[in-house]
């Protein structure tokens, strides 16, 4: 209300100045011609009364109009059909422009939704189609798995490692496509943190063996309120990063609890301090990613997106050359269930 009144006087300041100017001119002229002051005062009193009456009515209409537009602003997404009646031709023209802009916006949004849906359908189809040659490759690799030729066995081992990476990237694409509808897919329940960790470790057991990286796992004996499927995905991604940046043959990955946080620690190449604040950004690869060409810049972004929706915390500590520690906390949702 107060803002509407102030805006009314700002909008009409020129008219007020014009009225005061004319009043001043008439007053000076009346004084010069010696017109009786009683008549002048009476005229100015009547004029002032009329101005106050007219201005009061206009102020009331202005405040009502202002309130209508302010209310419309709150529900502008619903459309511009509820705009108040224009007070003049200029407002009418503005409303015509707004209507055209709104129609253009709706058309663009419709095209964007169709385009996005087509892209999602395409990638979904591609993911399911790519699984067929992956399965065929796995069968072909199994044919030579029991060979006694050391060179061939080394080749098979490398092929299995790369095939596993392909499967992980395909799964990452599926997860990325599901992110927008993730909220409707969440099913919270009290889960064993150890069970979630074991699922992830079991999936990557072959990678640990093939890369000869040691795993040190201390059971947590904790229960957490979460969506187990999505929590397992986060742990899998964190283990994947730990394996990716650990040195084959001498690497070590540790999973344990520290101050109510699940910690996944590796002794790999670490992360540079200037890169740490941006590791959760979409597409950010950092110095190590650019140097080794291993990073996609999507894994940690997906982890942060999932943990945000699960209301879990995720942070990273790292030192170049000494390794990385990732902390996953459940402060908002952990239940101490004995």
Structure notes:
The protein is of the alpha+beta class and 338 residues long. The chain has helices at residues 2-11, 13-32, 37-74, 89-143, 150-178, 182-185, 193-211, 228-244, 286-292, 299-310; strands spanning 189-192, 214-217, 223-226, 252-258, 261-266, 313-319, 323-329. The protein has a five-stranded mixed β-sheet, with helices on one face. Strand 4 and strand 5 form a beta hairpin. Helix 8 (228-244) packs antiparallel against helix 10. The chain is elongated and about 125 Å long.
Question: Roughly what fraction of the amino acids lie in strands?
Answer: 5-15%
Strand order of the largest sheet: 2-4-5-7-6
Number of strands: 7
Distance between the termini: 57 Å
CA-based gyration radius = 35 Å
Give the overall pLDDT as a whole number: 82
Note the run of SSEs as H and E: HHHHHHEHEEHEEHHEE
Q: Which stretches of 5+ consecutive residues score pLDDT under 50?
A: 333-338
Q: Number of DSSP helices?
A: 10
The global form is elongated
What's the layout of helices and strands?
Elements: H1 2-11, H2 13-32, H3 37-74, H4 89-143, H5 150-178, H6 182-185, E1 189-192, H7 193-211, E2 214-217, E3 223-226, H8 228-244, E4 252-258, E5 261-266, H9 286-292, H10 299-310, E6 313-319, E7 323-329
Parallel strand pairs: 2-4
Antiparallel strand pairs: 1-3, 4-5, 5-7, 6-7
């Amino acid at each position: 209300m107060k803002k509407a009144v102030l805006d009314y006087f700002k909008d009409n300041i020129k008219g007020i100045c014009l009225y005061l100017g004319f009043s001043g001119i008439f007053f000076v002229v009346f004084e010069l011609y010696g017109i009786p002051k009683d008549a002048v005062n009476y005229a100015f009193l009547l004029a002032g009364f009329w101005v106050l009456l007219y201005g009061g009515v206009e102020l009331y209409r202005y405040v009502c109009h202002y309130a209508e537009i302010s209310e419309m602003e709150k529900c502008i997404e619903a459309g511009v059909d509820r705009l108040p009646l224009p007070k003049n031709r200029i407002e009418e023209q503005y409303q015509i422009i707004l209507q055209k802009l709104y129609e253009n916006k709706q058309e663009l949004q419709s095209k964007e939704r169709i385009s996005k849906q087509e892209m999602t359908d395409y990638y979904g189809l591609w993911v399911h189609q790519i699984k067929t040659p992956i399965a065929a490759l796995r069968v072909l690799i199994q044919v030579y798995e029991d060979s006694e030729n050391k060179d061939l066995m080394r080749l098979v081992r490398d092929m299995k490692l790369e095939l596993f990476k392909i499967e992980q990237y395909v799964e990452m694409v599926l997860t990325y496509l599901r992110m927008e509808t993730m909220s409707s897919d969440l099913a919270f329940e009290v889960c064993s943190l150890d069970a979630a960790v074991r699922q992830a470790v079991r999936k990557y057991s072959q990678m640990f063996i093939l890369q000869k990286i040691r795993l040190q796992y201390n059971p947590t004996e904790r229960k957490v309120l979460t969506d187990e499927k999505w929590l397992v995905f986060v742990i899998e991604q964190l283990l994947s990063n730990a394996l990716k940046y650990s040195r084959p043959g001498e690497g070590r990955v540790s999973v344990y609890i520290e101050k109510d946080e699940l910690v996944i620690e590796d002794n790999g190449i670490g992360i540079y301090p200037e890169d740490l604040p941006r590791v959760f950004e979409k597409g950010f690869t950092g110095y190590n990613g650019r140097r080794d060409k291993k990073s996609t810049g999507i894994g940690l972004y997906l982890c942060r997106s999932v943990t945000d929706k699960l209301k879990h915390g995720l942070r990273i500590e790292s030192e170049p050359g000494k390794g990385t520690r990732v902390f996953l906390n459940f402060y908002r949702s952990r239940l101490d269930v004995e």
